[in-house]
Amino acid sequence: MTDEIKKGLLGIVVDETTISQVMPEINSLTYRGYAVQDLCEVCSFEEVAYLILNGDLPNSIQLNKFKKEEKANRNITINLREIINHMPKKAHPMDVARTFVSVMGLEDKETSDNSPEANMRKTMRIFAKTPTAIAAFFRVRKGKKIIKPKKDLSFSENFFYMCFGKVPQKEIVKAFDISLILYAEHSFNVSTFTARTITSSLSDIYGAITGAIASLKGPLHGGANEEVMHMMKKIKTPDKAKSWLIDNLNKKQVVMGFGHRVYKSGDSRVPTMKKYFLKVSKLKKDENLHKIGEIIEKEMLKRKNIHPNLDFPTGPTYHLMGFDTDFFTPIFVIARITGWSAHIMEQHISNKLIRPLSKYKGSKHRKVMLLNQR
Length: 374
Ligand code: ACO
What we know:
about 5% strand, Citrate Synthase, domain 1, 2 domains, binds acetyl coenzyme *A
């Protein structure tokens, strides 16, 4: 045993995984051995979700069965709809999301069954119902009626439909699908590690995903995609971007959507998402945010040698698609449920209670005084 402290577990390998590999030295990320940019070229989000959860890409029979099951599980209960209807309208959608995943756990008869079969069934329910619940709150807080899911639509199409009542052009749906693929999994990041830590006490998948959502909310993790948008709204126009950045750096403030614990010379997911950010900007005939992004990226590299992470292009892309800024991280949740669930199942298969040590630096041993003597 060593007394050396590795704050933030920096550089510590805590377990093995077969789900994904982050290779910062070659700027690469693979899911089950497939490069993520190749998956984006060829696959739908449903195929990648299947891959992450099952270990292999599906053939067409397996994919159809998976899609059928997902569609069959999309409806949420009347009880949950009522709860969403009564959520405070000003609540952050991430707080709402962790609450309704917790409620789904109360409603599921299999919550405490941690067998691989039950965990897979519960994963499918969480995977299929979470977009419905997120879309329901998207509408409810605007005073609009909840739209029920539609079975003849794909995962991404259905999410747009439940939020806006219509499905946009296929290129927009494709860009959204790509963002879900890129957000789906990323090894031992903070929310996944949270989910694995909760699981390690043999707790259930609903608790682990509720905790993971709370962890993802933070601006140093998933919450950064929202912060990027707040930043871009403050900058407003490309001509203000450089001076805003210099001012921000002079104030020693962190620039959201930049930097990464693992990737130090570029996030492997960024080039693919940037391509789709530009496509969506052109389709929407609004390249203002893209231009601001280009300037910030160039100046950050020049002045700090820090590269953008995935949250940098996704935030403004979701904005152009019409989503409210505080719904960007809930969209990340929709995608990451696949990665979290795969890790929760992997943790159950080879579990060891996660319990690190700490170095005590508080008061020396003290005598307890009686109340009237203190
Ligand atoms: N803006 C300005 N400076 C930065 C940034 C940034 N975004 N990121 C890192 N740095 C600087 C730090 O100030 C530090 O400088 P110093 O050595 O002079 O003190 C140096 O780079 C190292 O940074 P650390 O924070 O120590 O690196 P760490 O690995 O702990 O942090 C993190 C990674 C938390 C992601 C950090 O880069 C950050 O805060 N980024 C902004 C938030 C963000 O975009 N998060 C999303 C992560 S990706 C995701 O969740 C999909």
